[in-house]
Design brief:
The protein has 269 residues and is an alpha+beta fold. It is built from 10 helices and 11 strands. The strands form 2 sheets. It has a 6-stranded antiparallel β-sheet with strand order 2-3-10-5-8-11.
Length: 269
């Protein structure tokens, strides 16, 4: 089986950034199929543009733009790229970096599809910071990665604790209806939980308020759409459930730190 060392991926890598124990790569995938292989280091990969199919020993992930996967050490997998342009961004973690911050990655075994909008937005921010290249970028990337890993680990531990059944129902309802105007009463009816109980306990399991979670879902859903240069910001705003383009721009800047147009230009460059 093929073993890929640090910073190496199948395709045309347009940029590689080496930090102290972290390697960032921006790669356009060029192979229609990549046979079974594994990487030297654990890493995140997320699809900025296009589509990718990835299979491992247990499951197959269909990854459109916006999808994020975490691969632990030496986990074998294969890739299939459908027709069209596909671009991925990777964040590799060396052992010395993991040890320096006393992280135990045992709770993140195998290949994990990251679905929580909070985690995905933190990782997208790392991509943004990698393009700024100012004297605070390295520190920001380290902090964002630490926050993302700690939050993902906490989420995995919560799953093992068997959260109440309403938590899963709430998550599925919010993601399915994210382009609509959702009230606390509607969510309570969908989960079978009293609104007062739901309001009190929501942040305990989602680590943010009801409104913040919905806003993050909408912003996270807008990110892959922005990569489509043919879609206007107004179209994206309405598709993701924002009242208008101005509301979308304000929320995007509040969450991501830059405007949607600046992010689009960053992707294009």
């Amino acid at each position: 089986m093929i073993h890929l060392p640090k910073g190496q991926f199948y395709g045309q890598t347009t940029e590689t950034v080496y930090l102290d124990g972290i390697t960032l790569t921006d790669t356009a995938y060029t192979h229609e199929k990549v046979d079974w292989h594994y990487h030297e280091n654990p890493y995140f990969t997320f699809i900025l543009q296009g589509n990718l199919i990835e299979g491992n020993k247990k499951e197959v992930h269909h990854c459109p733009a916006g999808s994020i996967l975490f691969h632990n050490w030496q986990e074998p997998h294969y890739n299939i790229k459908p027709k069209g342009y596909t671009r991925g961004f990777h964040i590799e973690l060396e052992q010395k970096w993991v040890d320096a911050f006393s992280f135990d990655l045992q709770t993140l075994q195998g290949n994990i599809l990251v679905s929580n909008p909070k985690h995905k937005l933190l990782l997208y921010k790392i991509f943004v910071e990698s393009k700024f290249k100012d004297n605070t970028s390295d520190l920001s990337i380290q902090g964002l990665l630490l926050e993302a890993l700690a939050s993902i680990q906490r989420g995995q531990e919560d799953v093992l604790k068997n959260n109440p059944s309403w938590v899963k129902k709430a998550r599925e309802f919010l993601h399915d209806q994210s382009d609509e105007s959702i009230s606390l009463t509607q969510l309570a009816q969908a989960t079978g939980i009293h609104p007062g109980h739901l309001s009190r306990d929501f942040s305990r399991y989602f680590y943010c308020s009801f409104g913040e979670y919905i806003r993050k879902i909408k912003i996270e859903q807008s990110l892959p759409l922005i990569s489509n240069q043919q879609q206007t910001l107004t179209d994206i705003a309405f598709t993701c459930g924002f009242a208008d383009q101005s509301h979308f721009i304000r929320c995007f800047k509040a969450v991501m730190g830059i405007s949607p147009l600046a992010y689009r230009k960053m992707l294009r460059s």
